Each structure stands twice: as structure tokens, then as C-alpha cells.
Amino acid sequence: MHISIKSDGLQHRNQQLSEDNDLKLSELKYRRLFETAMDGILILDGDTGEIYDANKFILDKLGYPLDYFRKKQLWELGFIKDKSFAQKAFAHLKEHSYIRYEDLPLVTKDGRNLEVEFISNVYQGTTTRSSSVISGILPNGNGSKKPLPLPE
Fold first, then answer.
1. CB 87, CB 71: distance < 8 Å
2. What are the DSSP calls for 76-114, one per residue?
3. Per residue in 65-119, pLDDT tens?
4. How many domains does the chain have?
């Protein structure tokens, strides 16, 4: 009887380790998707608007390092031309959980002006940092608003 209890405990521990490993592998896959996406992605705290991650595409497109974005709100960053617009957009996003702009004017670190599409969504209850998380996406438009043909 005593051996059976230990065996059950060992089985439970092995299952827990397997589930932990599956979670780590899943997190690694999503991290790779985030880092290699061909669209710019910002991840923000849904309560404060503070940025806590940005992917390589947006860093390269705007010319700023990740540390430039981290722990700052969008309206504190120099690449958005109109700070009051960014603050109003954040308030709208918090209320409606979705926002989309066709030609959002941005400025790169080297002073180039860009007009980009920007799509943002709020996801509730997804982090321990806040009650919600916001993703902001700058799709890779390749200079065209028409869909690209499928490769043959």
C-alpha cells in the first residue's frame, strides 16, 4: 500500500513535468512567431499603455532599439507625430477593444516619414501584469494595399 502511494505520486509528478515541458515548447513556438513575423508587433500593458515588447520587424522598420520602446507609452515615443492623437487613440482602444488606421503617420529614427496601417486589439485577462494586454500590428504592406498574388 505504501509503495502504491509513492507510485501514484511519481506518476503525478511525471505528468506535471510533461505538461510543464509542453507549455515551455508552446511558449518557445509563439516567441519564434513573434520574433520572426513579417509584420511589426508591439505588446502593451492594457491598463497603462506601457510597451513591454516589440518584435524585430518594427524595430528595423523604425530604426530604434528595443530599449527605446520598453516601459514607455506610445505617446512618449518620438515616432508618433501627434502625441494627443496617440493618447485619444489609446482611450478609444480601451473603451472599444479595437482600433485601425490606414495611414498613420510615423517618423523613423533617421527622420523618414512613413504612413502605415496600424491595427490594435485588447485581450482581457491574459497576463499577470495587468487585467488586459494590447497588441499593435503594423502589417507589412510592401508599399501596396492590394493583396499580393499567391505563388504558383
1. no
2. GSTTBS-HHHHHHHHHHHHHHSEEEEEEEEEE-TTS-EE
3. 999 999 999 888 877 878 888 889 889 998 999 999 888 888 899 999 888 888 9
4. 2
CA distances from 132 to 13, 16, 62, 104 (A): 32, 28, 26, 24
Distance CA(5)–CA(83), nearest Å, equals: 63
| pLDDT value, residue 15 | 80
Residue 45 lies in a domain: yes
Q: Return d(Cα 72, Cα 42) in angstroms, integer.
A: 12
Q: Say if CB 37 and CB 53 are below 8 A apart.
A: no
Q: Which domain holds residue 11?
A: 1-36
**HSE (side-chain half, CA atoms, 13 Å) at 7:** 4
What's residue 151's pLDDT? 55
Strand 113-124 to 132-138 pairing:
antiparallel
Residue 101: closest CA among 115, 118, 88: 118
In 3D space, the residue among 110, 63, 59, 106 whose CA is nearest the CA of residue 86 turns out to be: 106
* pLDDT, tens digit (0-9, with 9 covering 90-100), for 30-52: 899 989 999 999 998 888 889 98
- DSSP strands (E only) in the chain: 40-45, 51-54, 98-107, 113-124, 132-138
